[in-house]
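User: Can you help me understand a structure? I only have the sequence.
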Amino acid sequence: MKKILKLLLLLIVIGAVAFGVFWFARPADVSFDQARAGVPNAEYSHFADIDGVRVHYQEKGTGTPLVLLHGFTSSTYSWKDVFEPLSQNSRVIAVDLKGFGFSGKPDGDYSRAAQSLLVAHLLDYLKIEKAWLCGNSMGGEIALNFALQNPQRVAGLILIDSGGVEVSGGGSLAPSYLLMPVVGRVLTALALTSDKLVRQGLEKSFFDRTKVTAERVANYYRPLQTRDGQLAAIRARAQADQSPLEQELNRINVPSLIIWGAQDALIPLAAGIKMNKLIKDSQLRIFDSCGHLPQEEMPARVVDEMTKFIAGQK
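Assistant: Let's start by predicting it. Here is the structure, written out as tokens:
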């Protein structure tokens, strides 16, 4: 029995050492300077130290400030096709949230409420008192948090396949094992030795799977190849449900446009319809033959709907 226990202990130690070597062989985080040539709109990229986090954002245009907030495991890349046209009428600020893209990925609070506070402090840094907030998926939930915490600072909301309400159906980009203590970290690291998991997630996110190109997969996969990128994704997923919003949405009293892909397999259209009912005087636009990422799948239509809605509130 003792020999078996000793052998088992030895195997555990060997496994831990092997995983340690495997884990630390990968970079801690992505380097913007090294990746710059392949980053869309890189000439408009800036960095700011906000609450101890090095935040990456892209800014272009003048006039009404419009803040773009991406979804889970995404980045400013998600807005690459709408960034330029939206900047023709607005001062557009696309943000890499804490833990994503080229922003810092420290330990700490990754709740939606904490992310919205970070966005508020970024706007302070940029000397923006009031802005339109546009968020997709997790970014929409962060925009809702912002509007509830800082109603006086929100000119209006644009929610694209947003989190924030509960409905049946749908799915998640994050495997269930992600939330398992210790084991989840190991399994996630092993699963992300290739881009297969990322590709599968994007295939769930698009109605038109021809949009899932090698270039798109590579941009989503880049931060998830790093130690800090993987840990940030685990933290953000684990803390996703710390700030339920559904019962508070009737307090939102700003112009609100809701855009939804009719074939969204992650957050079903039923959520958009429910959100439309809960946010008074909100308007709902349904895009047929479209999935979870309308700003990537149908960018021209998203720009048109956003531009017309914002102009109509002036």
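Now, to help you interpret it: The first helix runs from residue 2 to 24. Residues 12 and 18 are 10 Å apart (CA to CA). Let me know which part you'd like to focus on.
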